[in-house]
Amino acid sequence: MPGQNAHVVIIGGGIAGTAAALALHRAGLRVVVCEAHPRTATDLGAFLTLASNGMKALGQFGAAAPISRAGFDLTSMSALDENGTELIARPLGEVEDELTRFRCLRWSELTAALQAEVGVQGIELRHGAGLLGAVENADGVTAELADGSTVTADLLIGADGLNSLVRTLIDPNAAGPRYAGQRVFYGYTSTATPPSVPGRITMVRGRAASFGYTLSPAGQTYWFARQTAPALEQVGVEPSAELRAQLLEGLQQDQTPTAEIVAATEGILVTNARDLPQVEKWRSERMLIIGDAAHAASPATGQGASMAFEDAVVLAKALRDSPDQDSALKLYEQVRRPRTEYNIAASAAMTGASRPPTLPPAPFSDEDVARHLEWDTPLSA
Ligand SMILES: Cc1cc2nc3c(=O)[nH]c(=O)nc-3n(C[C@H](O)[C@H](O)[C@H](O)COP(=O)(O)OP(=O)(O)OC[C@H]3O[C@@H](n4cnc5c(N)ncnc54)[C@H](O)[C@@H]3O)c2cc1C
């Protein structure tokens, strides 16, 4: 197989990898994306919420409009206690602008929309091209791929998710993911549709689980449940009858619609919430990890994809605005590390893995974050 050259080779064509490809392309770099999966990407079958900060980041490299055509708007949220009493109801994020509203969509829809946009922009995305290893020297970094080919570039970006190979190439002693203390269940049902305001996501603080549900415009209830319990051995699969019964039993203690929703759902998925609290090295001379590979948080804050979109913008701006690659990667880490570590800590506090009594203040003000993300504003820490 022939070798290929590019400015940047991105490993992983999931959420972080495709977003980085679009942002770096906008900054004028020649990018190749190498995805292990032979067709699209691996899919948990879960759904995601994209927050306004993530939608704003997508807008910086022209992807907010294509993504807003997938899934549906979320414009308000409410919280119920275990007795079904509404504790709060409020608008969600930047409701007024249809490109920065919260969105709800399946993981597969998001990846498909991002990969389609990569194609529209003429960026090369190779499937079945999983990374096997990489060699870096003063002249460049060469990725060895499962299809027998190689790609040589100035920079290799590891957007290869929670179990990142690139993370271990950068640091063979890097700590792997930890169990964050909760099991996460997901499902969809068209037969239990609790009364709901259009565009509303309802969070239930139940006795045995934290639960969220929303009704799609097509009349399907999307739901998740987070339950504090020991880690499961088998995940990404339909839970056993025993596990399903256990979840239902816990939900039946509450006077809320949650048990009825779960009872009406046929295909349920379950996974372990995991995170990466401390990855000491994000980079070597010519390799960098982004997205979940560098800073996976447990799902509680619902910010994983939005953080990956922010990574993409900041990295593109850092490479665009810095005198050389080394300064760009330093600046990137200075801007991204405090914000993503804060998100990991905030999510862990909501998940139960570690409960600091109070979180320290957020590392950057809203104005700083806006400045970091605005495409036309030069990047500085
Ligand atoms: C249960 C659950 C619920 C979540 N809910 C939300 C939510 O509501 N909102 C939100 O914003 N985030 C949510 N997240 C987090 C979000 O899914 C992740 O943050 C996001 O998927 C990270 O994207 P990524 O591209 O870094 O990694 P991934 O999505 O894992 O993508 C990695 C890609 O790399 C590929 N790959 C892996 N190894 C190789 C290799 N060696 N060579 C080439 N390719 C490779 C994989 O096939 C995959 O396509 C949730 C996560 C979980 C587990």
Q: What percentage of the residues does DSSP assign to strands (E)?
A: 25-35%
Q: How big is the Rg? A: 21 Å
Distance between the termini: 42 Å
Number of strands: 17
Please tally the helical runs, counting DSSP H or I stretches of 4 or more residues.
11
Structure description:
The protein is of the alpha/beta class and 381 residues long. It folds into two domains: 243 residues, FAD/NAD(P)-binding domain; 97 residues, D-Amino Acid Oxidase, Chain A, domain 2 (2-Layer Sandwich), CATH 3.30.9. The protein is 31% helix and 27% strand. Strand 5 and strand 6 form a beta hairpin. Flavin-adenine dinucleotide binds next to helix 1, strand 3, helix 8 and helix 9. GO terms for molecular function: FAD binding; monooxygenase activity. Keywords: Monooxygenase, Oxidoreductase.
List its salient traits.
FAD/NAD(P)-binding domain; 381 residues; seven-stranded mixed β-sheet; 17 strands; binds flavin-adenine dinucleotide; single chain; 2 domains; globular; D-Amino Acid Oxidase, Chain A, domain 2; 27% strand; alpha/beta; 11 helices
Layout of secondary structure:
Blueprint: E1 3-11, H1 15-26, E2 31-34, E3 47-50, H2 52-60, H3 64-68, E4 72-74, E5 76-80, E6 86-91, E7 102-106, H4 107-120, E8 124-126, E9 131-137, E10 140-145, E11 150-158, H5 165-170, E12 178-189, E13 200-205, E14 210-215, E15 221-228, H6 241-251, H7 258-263, E16 269-275, E17 287-289, H8 292-295, H9 304-321, H10 325-351, H11 366-373
Parallel strand pairs: 1-2, 1-11, 2-8, 5-13, 11-17
Antiparallel strand pairs: 3-7, 4-7, 5-6, 9-10, 10-11, 12-15, 12-16, 13-14, 14-15
Helix pairs in contact: 1-4, 1-9, 2-9, 9-10
The structure holds flavin-adenine dinucleotide (FAD).
